[in-house]
Design a protein that fits this description.
- The complex is a heterodimer of chains A (356) and B (253).
- By secondary structure, chain A is of the alpha/beta class.
- Chain A folds into two domains: 4-238, Thiamin diphosphate (ThDP)-binding fold, Pyr/PP domains (Rossmann fold, 3-Layer(aba) Sandwich); 243-353, Rossmann fold, CATH 3.40.50.920.
- Chain A has twelve helices and 16 strands.
- Chain A has helices at 10-20, 35-44, 58-69, 81-97, 123-128, 145-161, 172-176, 218-238, 258-273, 291-295, 314-322, 343-353, and strands at residues 4-9, 25-28, 51-54, 75-79, 101-109, 115-118, 138-140, 165-171, 178-183, 210-211, 242-245, 252-255, 278-283, 285-287, 303-308, 328-332.
- In chain A, helix 1 (10-20) crosses helix 2 (35-44) and helix 3 packs parallel to helix 4 (81-97).
- Chain A is globular and about 70 Å long.
- With 253 residues, chain B is α/β, with parallel strands linked by helices.
- Chain B has a single domain, classed as Thiamin diphosphate (ThDP)-binding fold, Pyr/PP domains (Rossmann fold, 3-Layer(aba) Sandwich).
- Chain B has helices at residues 4-8, 26-40, 74-84, 96-102, 104-113, 153-156, 162-165, 183-201, 216-219, 223-237; strands at residues 46-50, 65-68, 89-95, 118-123, 172-179, 206-212, 241-245.
- In chain B, helix 8 (183-201) links the parallel strand 5 (172-179) and strand 6.
- In chain B, helix 2 crosses helix 8 (183-201).
- Chain B starts with a helix and ends in an 8-residue tail after the last strand.
- The chains are: A alpha/beta (356), B alpha/beta (253).
- Chain A binds chain B through residues 24-25, 27, 51, 53, 55-57, 59-60, 63-71, 73, 75, 89-90, 93, 200-204, 207-214, and chain B through 43-47, 49, 52, 56, 59-60, 63-70, 73, 76-81, 83-85, 88, 105-106, 109.
- Strand 10 of chain A pairs parallel with strand 2 (65-68) of chain B.
Chain lengths: 356, 253
């Protein structure tokens, strides 16, 4: 497949990007607003010698995903809030098992059965972990079709470098947005990594391997967790990503991810045009959270405004990152006919905090 | 020390002490599975996906790659594995609790998909590892840690007949229930387990064998009494039989 620019719904951009970057097997169960990923995968994966397999539940989806990941081949799944909830049994397992995979979560309104409208309400479940035990997954939050295409190769490399599930989260509004995206030419990024040292492919070329995530002694359990701790510390140190602009002399910094993060570019350029000292930070990795972006803020910053399509989730991480040094304010809602803020709403709140 | 693998083949690791309780039926079934793999010459490309519970120990006694799955999900793990690596032979091995309590949904959908994977369900009518609680296959009236007055059908229903649930599924190409109650029964079980693997090797479709075994510890019985129970009450209800055998048809692998 050659590089080409297509006008696509962003769920379809996920499917195209994943297939063009080497995903061979995709497992899924229908759920709005994520279904278009599996629909397109069902059509395109056979062209790459792969297959989309529809399962009977997200519990089975994530289990089949884990089984396929044991072969070392690049595998993916896509879902939305309630489906992601069911998948956590295997996501926690894959973290303990050092299995790479890609998970796409197209976020909708929760909790319970919730609403199919877009939201950012899965921040907690992906960054804190919805399964038992001390584990982390890398979480990437693209804010546009082009950023999906650009981040997928990086996500695959992180999944294999650290042998860890990598979760892409996108608010359902961005997931349903149709826009022009330049898709990459075919390249299997997982092929950069040698899996022959760990994959469970049969004993023809190695002595017996057993994938064991349970501890047979208390010391085993301790050591398993210490290995994970060390890995997570490396990731926290090396893999923080964010976009920022105008923060050097800002009195107010607006922090948002996904679609509100994308809107921050317009917010800052408009308010700067009016002479107002406003900057923004858009986290791209939600875990590891880009603490450094906030730690580096100067004494000129008098307030931080966090905008989210939920009732306040990422705002906790911003507060931890500034550790009381700067007042942190929150603007957020979830659900309703327009489940997000307009640029005018965001500018009005920013003006209020600037005392105008 | 005598080289046991020269005598019994490479698959079964006889140098390892098992953690099965004395008299447990798992030891017999594990050996039969290892012998089937050995005889078919598929050891180097066979992967065990084991459940949670005593069945999870089984792979330790076989020198093949193994995956300890989450509780009840081994059939789904196996489907994903087989899709990604169809040239390998993948089987699941777990008890009745893992296979037909928490894992019944995964099991029946895997069977219905009909992909060539193999399931060995070891049925001892009780949750053994956690100390003898009721399982879906606990017999009517059977006393367990959670049915102190015996299994009450008004509250708990009747023991689940698992292979019977798969009889109408076209994708299931070998379907049997066996037991280890007697030497004769063990020889029959060996034939069925080998056929189940053969079914996969030849790419025919899904294969399933339930093996009825005693659990002296979980049932709090003497070993001899638990085998007598296996030969009588257990197999009176869970009748050993080959429900379907399509291994005679033309290879499609």
């Amino acid at each position: 497949m050659i590089q080409e620019t297509l006008f696509l719904k962003n769920t379809e951009t996920f499917a195209e990007s994943l297939a063009r970057c080497g995903v061979k097997y995709h497992f899924a169960y229908p759920i709005t607003p994520a279904t278009d990923v599996m629909k397109r995968m069902a059509v395109i994966l056979p062209r790459y010698g792969g297959q989309m397999m529809q399962m009977e539940s997200e519990l089975a989806v994530s289990s089949a995903l884990a089984g396929a990941a044991c072969t070392g081949k690049l595998v993916a799944t896509s879902s939305s809030g309630p489906g992601l909830t069911l998948m956590h049994e295997a996501i926690g397992f894959m973290c303990a098992a050092y299995l790479p995979c890609i998970v796409v979560d197209s976020m909708r309104v929760g909790p319970g059965d919730g609403d199919i409208l877009g939201a950012q309400s899965d921040y907690f479940v992906v960054t804190r972990g919805g399964a038992h035990g001390d584990y982390r997954t890398v979480v990437l939050a693209p804010s546009s079709g082009q950023e999906i295409a650009d981040l997928v190769p990086h996500g695959i490399r992180l999944a294999y470098r650290y042998r860890i599930p990598v979760v892409f989260v996108i608010d359902g509004v961005s997931a349903q947005t149709t826009e022009s995206t330049t898709l990459p030419a075919y390249n299997d990024y997982s092929a950069e990594f040698d899996t022959s040292g760990w994959a469970f492919t049969g004993t023809k070329d190695h002595a017996k391997r057993a994938l064991i995530t349970g501890s047979y002694s208390h010391q085993d359990g301790y050591e398993m967790n210490e290995r994970l701790r060390a890995k997570y510390e490396v990731i926290r140190d090396k893999e923080q990503m964010w976009e920022q602009d105008g923060v050097e002399d800002a009195e107010l910094v607006v922090a948002a991810f996904g679609i509100h993060g994308r809107m921050c570019r317009d917010l800052v350029s408009r308010m700067r045009a009016d002479g107002k000292k406003v900057g923004f930070i858009r986290p791209i990795t939600l875990w590891p959270f880009p603490d450094r972006a906030f730690e580096a803020l100067g004494s000129c910053v008098q307030n931080i405004l966090v905008v989210e399509m939920n009732l306040g989730q990422m705002v906790d991480d911003v507060r931890l990152a500034v550790n009381g040094r700067i007042p942190v304010h929150f603007l957020g809602k979830t659900g309703g006919d327009l489940p997000m803020y307009t640029l005018a709403d965001m500018i009005a709140e920013a003006d209020r905090l600037l005392g105008e | 020390m005598e080289n046991l693998s020269a005598k019994y083949g490479k698959t079964l690791n006889l140098d390892k002490l098992t953690s099965y309780c004395p008299g447990c039926g798992h030891g017999v079934v594990t050996r039969l599975v290892a012998e089937a793999i050995e005889e078919l010459g598929i050891m180097e490309r066979t992967i065990a996906i084991v459940g949670i519970g005593c069945g999870g120990f089984s792979h330790h006694y076989m020198d093949i790659d193994a995956i300890e799955a989450t509780h009840g999900r081994a059939p789904s793990f196996a489907l994903g594995y087989k899709l990604a690596m169809p040239e390998n032979i993948v089987f699941t091995y777990a008890g009745d609790g893992d296979t037909c309590a928490i894992g019944l949904g995964d099991l029946l959908h895997a069977a219905n998909k009909g992909m060539p994977i193999t399931t060995i369900m070891v049925n001892n009518t009780v949750f053994g590892m956690t100390g003898g609680q009721m399982s879906p296959t606990t017999l009517v009236g059977q006393v367990t840690a959670t049915t102190a007055k015996g299994r009450d059908t008004a509250l708990q229903g009747y023991p689940l007949l698992v292979p019977e649930m798969m009889r109408s599924m076209e994708g299931v190409k070998f379907l049997a229930r066996e037991s280890v109650a007697t030497p004769k029964a063990i020889r029959k079980a060996k034939r069925s387990i080998r056929k189940a693997f053969e079914c996969q090797v030849r790419g025919l479709g899904y294969s399933f064998v339930e093996v009825v075994v005693p659990c002296p510890t979980g049932l709090k019985m003497r070993v001899r009494d638990s085998y007598a129970r296996c030969a009588n009450e257990m197999t009176d209800y869970f009748k050993p039989q080959v429900f379907r055998d399509e291994t005679e048809q033309v290879d499609v692998a």
